[in-house]
Amino acid sequence: MGFDALHLHLRHPPPFFLAPHSSLQETSSQLEPILRPLHAKLGPIVTLRIGPRPAIFIADRSLAHQALVQKGAPPATILRVISTDQHTINPSFYGPTWRLLRRNLTSEILNPSRVRSYGHARRWVLHFLITRFELLSKSGKPVTVAMFWVLVIMCLGEKLDEEKVKDIEQVERSFLKRRGSLMKLRLLSLCNEFINAGTDTTLTALHTHISKRSCALEIKEVVGDGEDQEVKEEYLQNLPYLKAEILEGLRRHPPGHFVAPHAVTQDVVLDKYVIPKNATINFMVAEMGWDPKVWKDPMSFKPERFVNNGGEAFDITGSREIKMMPFGAGRRICPAYGLATLHLEYFGANSIWKF
């Protein structure tokens, strides 16, 4: 898909246009090398004219906080800045349906007591993964990891074997092909959203920690030299360096370099910039976590940034100030960021401890 112009929206003078490019796929790997020099030259907001809708990219953490936190949740009588235009929880318009779906998710399946009750599922998945790692590592075959098993148990209440996992993959492919005829099956859509959202991002983040061995000594001090072959969930609170590694991994290598696209419902002034109605807004997550004004030597991996209670005190939700936003921010922050963090700590710690 081509885009016909690129410009910077300013409230007062008219938009500044650059020469069009011939074509561009809408992927972060292709967009980021183009956007970085443009942001350096033009400022914190850049607009790509992709087809009929402008796509706006925000790289400034203060503007992101203003849009997502300060103006993303105003009283009903004030202009609403952020919303999206699809279905299910993540992309639906802000309104009664969105509030109901999200409230049901957070108060039921993501309720802290409910999350704790699925500890047996995490232990079952951990045992299976370790067994598979050991068997396949000896054979030299690649290890296929199905992190979403634990999410399937939470959503459907069933433990699945490997064949059923493959069946689910086939069903999902079929679902995508038949999506138009299945839109009435909202429960299926919601389960699909919950499972997929918690699988790819967790696996991507876990991949950056699974080979880290710098916190192995800390784990050994907590677990001891006994016969305990598992880093239990209750041990995690006593592993500050592990938590620091997780946070630094999310900062330096966020699972997604953009959060889900947002849109405005009408023309909005954000600082000195005009955001036109129906424009797609993208927040550059990686750039915000690499801001040298916040992080010294931002491109280096330094878990020590979060040690000495820094990890416990750090506001990853960005409610006070956005320093990084791997889970988004504001009303549409990932509702399962606590569950994702638990999975990263639990499976990451046990991977380090075992291997």
From TrEMBL:
<dbReference type="InterPro" id="IPR002401">
    <property type="entry name" value="Cyt_P450_E_grp-I"/>
</dbReference>
<dbReference type="GO" id="GO:0020037">
    <property type="term" value="F:heme binding"/>
</dbReference>
<dbReference type="GO" id="GO:0016020">
    <property type="term" value="C:membrane"/>
</dbReference>
<keyword id="KW-0349">Heme</keyword>
<keyword id="KW-0503">Monooxygenase</keyword>
<dbReference type="InterPro" id="IPR051103">
    <property type="entry name" value="Plant_metabolite_P450s"/>
</dbReference>
<keyword id="KW-0560">Oxidoreductase</keyword>
<dbReference type="GO" id="GO:0016709">
    <property type="term" value="F:oxidoreductase activity, acting on paired donors, with incorporation or reduction of molecular oxygen, NAD(P)H as one donor, and incorporation of one atom of oxygen"/>
</dbReference>
<dbReference type="InterPro" id="IPR017972">
    <property type="entry name" value="Cyt_P450_CS"/>
</dbReference>
<keyword id="KW-1133">Transmembrane helix</keyword>
<keyword id="KW-0408">Iron</keyword>
<keyword id="KW-0479">Metal-binding</keyword>
<dbReference type="GO" id="GO:0005506">
    <property type="term" value="F:iron ion binding"/>
</dbReference>
<keyword id="KW-0472">Membrane</keyword>
<keyword id="KW-0812">Transmembrane</keyword>
<protein>
    <recommendedName>
        <fullName>Cytochrome P450</fullName>
    </recommendedName>
</protein>
<dbReference type="InterPro" id="IPR001128">
    <property type="entry name" value="Cyt_P450"/>
</dbReference>
<feature type="binding site" description="axial binding residue">
    <location>
        <position position="334"/>
    </location>
    <ligand>
        <name>heme</name>
    </ligand>
</feature>
<comment type="similarity">
    <text>Belongs to the cytochrome P450 family.</text>
</comment>
<dbReference type="Pfam" id="PF00067">
    <property type="entry name" value="p450"/>
</dbReference>
<dbReference type="InterPro" id="IPR036396">
    <property type="entry name" value="Cyt_P450_sf"/>
</dbReference>
